[in-house]
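Intended use. Records like the one below are meant for learning the mapping from a protein sequence to its folded structure. Do not use them to infer anything beyond what is encoded.
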Amino acid sequence: MKTLLFLASLTLTTPALAALGDQLATPASGQRVLSAVTSGNYTQRETVDGTGLHLREYVTSAGIVFAVAWNGPAMPNLQQIFGSSYSSFQSAAQARSSLNALGHRASGDLEVETGGHMGAYVGRAWLKSRLPDGFDTTSIQ
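Structure written out for the chain above:
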């Protein structure tokens, strides 16, 4: 019974974040939507959780998350954010030759940039195949 309650508490406290390539999810309890701005053929939604982690999700007009950016005192759950692309991210991370000084990793469809230091982490990631026509990745902030 204790194990069941523990697993249920993990489910309740895990933020509802959409994985790259999936439909945008409703923010979980403890997350606040700070803004949702539509620009051309995509929307950028920014949320913040109780730890101060800011997450910006870039969403197509069809509701698919094609990019994310984050900043905060801790790293977000990258496995949850990258979804099915996480295994290719892990492979690229293990192949040191794919990592340059700026923390940029490219693996197939997934591009990831990470940086920062303890207490101030930043990053951004996108799926190249899901970018809307004419979207400039430098706008992922």
